[in-house]
User: What shape does this take?
Amino acid sequence: MTQAPSGKLRVVPLGGLGEIGLNCLVLDWNGYALAIDCGVMFPEPHMLGIDLVIPDLSYLEQFGDRFLGFVLTHGHEDHQGALPFALRTFSVPVYATPMAQGLVAERLKEHGLSAEFRVFRAGESWDLGPFSIEAIHVTHSLVDTVALAIRTPVGVVIHSGDFKFDQTPIDGKPSDLHRLAQYGELGVLLLLSDSTNAERPGHTPSERSLREPLAEIFAHTPGKVFFSTFASHIHRITQAIELSLAHGRRIAVVGRSLLNSIKIATQLRYLDCPASLLLDAKDLPSNESDRVTILTTGSQGEAMSALIRIAEGGHPQFTMGPGDAVILSSRVIPGNEKQISNLINHALRRGAEVYHSQNTPVHVSGHGSQEELKLFLRLCKPKFFVPIHGELRHLIAHRRIALELGIPPENTFLLENGKVLEIDAYGARETGRTTAGRVFVDGKGVGDVVEVVLRDRRHLSSDGLVLAVVVLDQQTGSVIAGPDLVSRGFLPEAGADLVMEQARQLVLDSLAELPLESRTDSQEVKEQVRRVLRRYFARTLDRRPVILPFVLEM
Ligand SMILES: [Zn+2]
Ligand SMILES: [Zn+2]
Assistant: This one.
């Protein structure tokens, strides 16, 4: 009889559970750790002024040189975007497929960084400390996406990555169901699986299902086609290029991120785009404006994007008008509804036809729906199951699916970021919690904007600021100058004189009433100024600006 391995596997999600984005999950066998993915999240509307959100990786510090590296499932930002920050702290190798490597390298270059890459392809395996990893091809909205089968001394852990089971993918390479089934036969200890679409019944339609509706639009548009999708969606870009070719259109690519990913995919032969087809946007003659596809990003109506500027009529090169078509070939990222609607309204006002996922099938998800999640579970037949990659509602829906398929409830774990799942020869259990959370990036500052700073920003942005400056005599506490009141985002300069004059007078009166010992104490004076102004503005205007008193003593 073989002896049970002595040791513990710890599974620690640092991001991506209970949220969309920030994907990062650590596997630790007896003090040797690897991290799967290292993604970002784009700031939510209430995170004012924040450029990016990254996961708190301080948990990884304890491993020192036993932290063996980052292993990426694919090159989407929610899986690799935090690497430029993480690699400043951890100089470890990054294991990535060629497309993911290309996208990460490009991103690192923007930060003036480089990394030690170990490039792998689907079907390859390699050892990493006590782990042995195999990459298994899965279909997704990005080429070169893999699931990972990770052999550990206690058993095989399968991480699904982001996947759908597209049986008719554009590149003719379906998910490697066969390999997943083989692992299922050998025995899978733990499955960690993508929950994004766990609430959607049925199957996610194939990327190929878009061909007909898109062809229809290309065939019947007399003018320009503005085709907008995510920069890294190579399959979708392939479709736009093939349709342009079929309908005698040349293509102008607008946008740096799109040009980059087309360049990388072409080098890696994931994209076959004849150079003769591509027009440099700069060379586009104004009279040859029809029979052109303008491939661009900006499908979320982003304020700085070329597409919104074209739709608003403020782009130096391109115009939009009757006979043109705008195709928003992407999903609506929650929170962006308003600006997308704004984009659609502008395009319609110019007389263009607008096709988007709510009126025409011009987009399919890259994530599997319920039947595909069931198939993944059936193929792997895992002993333990942890839903990952989703908000709590998605994780709960996915867990419910696992239960339906007969996985015992006590073998499923609804983990949160920072929760520790421990597995040894005797079973699996949650054993506590470690540091995890969100770190805000604002300009060059990483982590210096904390929740209380954000609270101030929200307060300032909704109620404005009143600055009160008063100069006091150090001995007598009498007012030498001021109070001067300056406001921003509170009342317009003009017309506020009366309110501000009354406020000034109230502050003066109340300071005169203070006993001498309080009047010579600048802290007390500040508090008094704040109190008087707060009450006054609340009573007269029903507003609560941030009040910032400055007391100078002379
Ligand atoms: Zn993805
Ligand atoms: Zn993802």
Notes: The CA atoms of residues 429 and 511 lie 63 Å apart. DSSP finds 15 helices and 26 strands in the chain. The radius of gyration is 29 Å.
